């Protein structure tokens, strides 16, 4: 299979969506209002991971692009849980893609303890052969959920998906602790935001003074 050719439109989609989603944060900054987006990352799924997922799920090679929905993946990381739902409202209003599936793993966490909000979108890219509509996944999560998921992903990789029972239990506890941290931070959200505003203003003054 010519993976470079197959993945080229997905690379284009990830590049375009990274720019578009990052601009959303920049727009809040111009308006000096709280951005529900902290940062945005994206990646094209590595070929080895596509093949492993296809094998694990019994997907034939000719069905890969229809059935593996995260070949193009974007991640939006937020400060507060409420921001995730604010981002969702913004994404629903957009005209450049269609949301075809929503999975709320915050209201209903996964067995591992994993929390995040996922959407699958249909996104059109313009290629030299015309328009191609492809699937992409957007994961929306808080900084605390991201911290947990990143660590769990590494541990999962280390144990090839067979995490020992005791570590699994501790990871679930850590997921709950991360969620409590999110709840605590939400309850002092106004304090945090006021402090950030003061800090930003001061940074702006210092910057002007030093010019
Ligand atoms: N770290 C971590 N990430 C997860 C976990 N569950 C899901 N994810 C992430 O979310 C993506 C989509 O997960 P699901 O919505 O469960 O998708 P799925 O295709 O039904 O199942 P997967 O085989 O897990 O991809 C995965 O590719 C991971 O990036 C988890 O338990 N831990
Ligand atoms: N939607 C996404 N946006 C940005 N990064 C992602 C996204 N999904 C996964 N990643 C990251 O891409 C890297 C490679 O992930 P890979 O696709 O192999 O993992 P996975 O999505 O957890 O696996 P699988 O779907 O096969 O269970 C990891 O660092 C993972 O955190």
TrEMBL record:
It holds the Pfam family RelA_SpoT. Keywords: ATP-binding, Coiled coil, GTP-binding, Kinase, Nucleotide-binding, Transferase. Residues 42-163 form the RelA/SpoT domain. Pathway: Purine metabolism; ppGpp biosynthesis; ppGpp from GTP: step 1/2. Belongs to the RelA/SpoT family. Homotetramer. This is GTP diphosphokinase. It comes from Salinibacillus xinjiangensis.
